[in-house]
C-alpha cells in the first residue's frame, strides 16, 4: 500500500563574507544593448544627453559622462587617474563608485565598461523595490528612469602580468522618479586599489594613493566620502555597506546633502528577493483545517514586502485555479484573510494539471520580479498522479531559470517518491512545519554576512520493534533487517552527537541496544540477532510506561521510530502512546508485513509525512540525517 517516506528541509551554512553577487547586479552587457566603452586608459564616454532631469545636490543635470577611471561626471569628462580627496573644488561634479586608475587596454574580452540609460520595466521594478526597501519612508516610490554603469573585471594601469590577475567589478545605478534621485553602488569584487602611476605596486595593485569612493558637488562644501577612501581599507568595499547588505551602498542624492539610507535596526537582516508561488492541494484527501493552519503559520513568518518575499497562490483538485497573482501585491493581512476563506474542493487531486501552467505565473505581466529568486512550493500528499506525466511537468518547472521547487508533504499519508520527483533536491522536500519551512527559506535567501548560520548534528533516535503474535517470524525478521539497514546507513554518515537505542516489545520490553553514540552502533547489531521471535501479546500498559520513561529527552531533535504491523494498536492505545511522548519529539511509524493495518500505522505517526514502509530504510536514514542537522542562524 502506501509508502511513505518523507523528508524535511534544512539548509546550507552561509559563510560570513560578503559582496553583491553578479545575479543581484542590475543586468548589463552586450545582451542588454549596453554601450561598451572602447578599451582605453583615462578615457570617457561621449557626452550622454539623458532623457530626464537628474537632480544632484539640488542641481538639475541633463548630461553625464561615464569615465574609465571609475567616475560618472556631470560637468565634463574626467581623465584624472590619481583619486583626489573630497571635497574637491574645480567643477568636479562626480559620482565616484571607485575613482582609481583603471586601464582596459590589455584585458580584451575578459573585462569591459558598460553603460545604458534604461526605462525597461525590469530595471524600473528592481530600482523601485530597492529604494522602497532601503528608504521605508519612500514606500510608494516608482522609478521612471535608471542609468546603469558597470565596470566589469577591470584591471589597473601599470599592472605586471601578475598584477593583471587583480580585477575589480562594480556598478553604479542612478535612479529617479523625476522628483527624488537615488544612487546605488554595488560591489562584487575589489582586488586592487591603486595603479602604478599613483604609486601602487605593479604586482598587487595596492599601496600608493588608493581609490576615492563617494560623491562630490564641486563647491568644496558638499560631498560624501565613504569611510576608508584613499586608504588601504577601501579594498574591503565588498564587505562594507551603509544598508547592512555587504557590498551595497544606497544614497539619496537630490537634496543639498547626500543622504545615506537609514541604518536598519540591529536585529533586522535582509533576505534576497523571492517570488514565492504556493500551489495548494485542496482535494478531499487533505484535512483543510490542518492545511490552512500550516499555510497561515508559514505566511506569518515570511517578510512580505516589495524587496523580500512576494506571494502568489494557486489551488487545485480536479482542476487548478489561480487564487491570486504576484501583481495583486497582497499584504500579509490580505493573504491570511484569503486563506481563511478557502474550502475543500470537490474531486481528487490532479497535480499534473496544477503544475502545467505554473511557469506562466512568473511572467512579468503577472507581477513577478525578473531578478527575484523564484520558488514554487507545492503543498500536497502527492497521491493520484501518474509518475511519468508528473515527471514531464516537473522537468519543465525545474528547467525554468532561477527556480527552486519545494514540496511540503501534507495529509494522512504522503507519497514521498512523487514529492521527490518534483522537488529540486532532497533538502527541498519539507515536512509540514512552518518552522522548518522558514529555516529552509532563510538559508536559501540569507544575505551573506547578514546571517551567520552554524551547522551541527545532534539528537536522539529511539527505535522500537514489535515482537508479538500479531506478526510472523518472517515479518519479525523483516523488521530486524530494517533496523540493520537503517543503523548501518546512519553510522556511515558519521553523525556527531547523535545517540540511539533499540528496544523490542511484546509482553515485556527488552533493551536490545542501550542508548549510545550512534557512531559505534553497527558493532552492537549482533545483540539484536540473538532476539527470538515471540508469540506473546503486547503488554500495552508496559509499553506506554516505557515510552514515558525513554521520552524524557535532553535533545531537541528527538525521534521515536515505531516498527510494527499496526495490528495490536487501537485508537485508545494510539492516543495514550502519543501522550506519553514529549511533545517536542516526532513519532515516525514504519509499517511491517503484508497485512499491515495502515490506518493504525498512519494514526500513530506525528503526521502522514512520517509514515514509512519496510522498504524505506535507506530513505529514512537520509531523512534522519537531514533532520538531525541543526542549523542556527543568528
Ligand atoms: C536589443 O536590441 C535588439 C535590436 O534592436 C532588440 O531586438 C532587443 O530586444 C534588445 N534587447 C534588449 C534587452 O533590450
Ligand atoms: C546633447 O545636447 C546638446 C545640447 O543640449 C547638443 O548640442 C548635442 O548635440 C547633444 N548630443 C547628442 C549626442 O545628442
Ligand atoms: C571579507 O571578510 C571576510 C571574513 O572576514 C574575509 O575573509 C575577506 O577576505 C574579506 N574580503 C575583503 C575583500 O575584505
Ligand atoms: C548522548 O549521550 C551522551 C552520553 O550519555 C551524552 O553526554 C550526550 O549529551 C547525548 N547526546 C544527545 C544529543 O542526547
Ligand atoms: C566516515 O568516517 C570514516 C572513517 O573515518 C571514513 O572512511 C568515511 O569516509 C566517513 N564517511 C563519511 C560519509 O564522511
Ligand atoms: C560520538 O562519536 C563521535 C565519533 O566517534 C565523536 O566525535 C562524538 O564526540 C561522540 N559524541 C558523544 C556525545 O560522545
Ligand atoms: C503488564 O506489565 C505490567 C507492569 O510490568 C504488569 O503489572 C501487568 O500485569 C502486565 N499485564 C499483563 C496483561 O501481562
Ligand atoms: C520535552 O523536552 C524538552 C527538551 O527538548 C524539555 O525542555 C521539556 O521539559 C520536555 N517536556 C516534558 C513534558 O518532558
UniProtKB/TrEMBL annotation:
Residues 1-18 form the signal peptide. The keyword Lipoprotein does not apply. The lineage of its organism: Eukaryota, Metazoa, Spiralia, Lophotrochozoa, Mollusca. SMART domains: NIDO, VWA. PANTHER family: MUCIN 4-RELATED (PTHR13802), SUSHI DOMAIN-CONTAINING PROTEIN 2 (PTHR13802:SF59). Keywords: Signal. Residues 275-445, 460-628 form the VWFA domain. This is Sushi, nidogen and EGF-like domain-containing protein 1,Alpha-tectorin. One of its GO terms (biological process) is cell-matrix adhesion. InterPro entries: Epithelial_Barrier/Signaling, NIDO_dom, VWF_A, vWFA_dom_sf. It holds the Pfam family NIDO. Residues 97-256 form the NIDO domain.
